[in-house]
Amino acid sequence: MKAFIIDRYGSNDSVRAGEMPEPVLRDDDVLVQIYAASVNPLDLKIRDGQLKLVLPYRLPLILGNDFAGVVVAVGPRVRRFKPGDEVYARPDQDRIGTFAQSIAVREDDLALKPRTLSMEDAASIPLVGLTAWQAFERSNLKPGQKVLIHAGSGGVGTFAIQLAKHLGATVATTTSMANLDWVKALGADIVIDYKKTAFETTLRDYDLVLDTQGGDVLEKSLQVLKPGGKVVTLAGPPDPDFAKAISANWVVKLAMRLLSYRIRQRAKRAQVGYSFLFMRASGHQLREIASLIDSRVIKPVVDRVFPFEATKEALAYVENGRAKGKVVIKMR
Question: For labelling alongside 26, which of 13, 103, 123, 263 has CA 20 to 30 A away?
Answer without folding.
Answer: 123
